[in-house]
């Protein structure tokens, strides 16, 4: 029985390497939910919630290095954000590992629409750029889940912002 268990574990471990090689595709994305409580100068408190979803697709130009594009959908209080962006991603460990570390740089061009009805234009364009560092754990040679820390800077919703957050992502690595 012990030998059967070790054989199964060994067999599964052989298939846990991801397709991080030149010519393969990376399809997936990430999402987040944020809830923040604020107190203003008058002593009043309020809550700010937003949801972000970023589906993405990339192509491995060389082993462990992908270039890709992402969409951005965000619901922030009274604002909706729609965007498109570019990213580069590099994996640090060997391609045959069941987990890997990565770094990603991105730039997003976003269009924000406000739900407030006024006589002036209720939309604006923004630029956001940032870095993402994280770990991906592969369930098999194709599917991985990732946890990352993200720093993002930009001018979203008429104000400059510096954001540091944790995100959860899901990736599918497709062979040529």
Describe what is shown at a glance.
It comes from Winogradskyella poriferorum. The chain has 176 residues and is mostly beta strands.
Topology at a glance:
Blueprint lengths: L1 H13 L10 E15 L5 E18 L2 E12 L2 E13 L7 E16 L8 E16 L4 E14 L2 E16 L2
Antiparallel strand pairs: 1-2, 1-8, 2-3, 3-4, 4-5, 5-6, 6-7, 7-8
Protein name: Outer membrane protein beta-barrel domain-containing protein
InterPro entries: OMP/PagP_B-barrel
Keywords: Signal
Structure description:
With 176 residues, this protein is mostly beta strands. It has a single domain, classed as Porin. The chain has 1 helix and 8 strands. It has an 8-stranded antiparallel β-barrel.
Q: How many beta-strand segments?
A: 8
Structural class assignment: mainly beta
Low-pLDDT stretches are 4-16
Distance N terminus to C terminus? 39 Å
- How are the strands of the largest sheet arranged? 1-2-3-4-5-6-7-8
Main beta sheet: strand number and arrangement? 8 strands, antiparallel, barrel
Task: Note the overall shape.
Answer: elongated
User: Helical segment tally?
Assistant: 1
How many domains? The number is: 1
In round numbers, the mean pLDDT is 83
Annotated CATH topology = Porin
CATH architecture verdict: Beta Barrel
What is the C-level CATH assignment? Answer: Mainly Beta
| Helix residue percentage | under 10%
Question: Approximately what portion of the residues adopt beta-strand conformation?
Answer: over 45%
What order do the helices and strands follow? HEEEEEEEE
Rg for CA atoms: 20 Å
Protein name: Outer membrane protein beta-barrel domain-containing protein
Keywords: Signal
Signal peptide: 1-18
Organism: Winogradskyella poriferorum
